[in-house]
Amino acid sequence: MTLQQELNINQLPSTSPTALSRIKELAITNLIGWIPRPLGVLLRRLAYRFILARVGRRLYIQMGVEFLGGSSVEIGDDVKIMRDVRFDMIAPNSLLCIGNKVCIDRGVDIKATVSDCLIEIGDGSYLGPYVCMAGPGHIKIGKECLIASQTGIYANNHREHGLSREGIEIQDNVWIGSGVRILDGVTIGKGSVIGAGAVVTKDIPPFSIAVGVPAKVIKASKGAGTA
User: Fold this and answer.
1) Cis amide bond preceding 38, omega within 30
2) Strand pairing partners for 225?
3) Tell me: the pLDDT tens digits for 80-117?
4) Which of 13, 91, 185, 210 fits a 20 to 30 Å CA distance from 70?
5) Catalytic site residue 161?
């Protein structure tokens, strides 16, 4: 069973961003999105509640962050979003859920691409600079994951029968090195480590270290046997 089948599709909203919500996004972000710290952080913490589906406590957003379809974005407590991050959830019936104490570093790009896409980022996880994530398949990142810069997580692939959307799951406490590519239909097991530059085309078992193109398990990680 794929992640796409396992996730509860009822989590997704049955609505789409409207022209009015898009006008509101543009107005608010153009007015205060460029204001530098510390005043800008305070203003965005207050004003972005009007364009996002949910905003937790102590939200920290630097200048230059862009929301498309902010009404389909839920953000938890103590979340940090650095400069030039772009969220594109304008596709119908899509949802981005960001957990508590998540840090999204500079230039990260997250996009639903087409309708009915669910993207989840678990509590305490970190997305490094210029990480790219794209549907249309569901993407689930677990708790306390570290995803290094320039990583690409693409829940789509071109198959003989057309574009796939099987989904991607990265379980808790996974470390992913810089420049990794993770392709559709993959699950990376809890406590695993993926070496820099690897291309993950198949499932990685829990507590494994995998490297190479395509990624292959070379040994158990230090967390093996402690869960």
Assistant:
1) yes
2) none
3) 999 999 999 999 999 999 999 999 999 999 999 888 99
4) 185
5) no
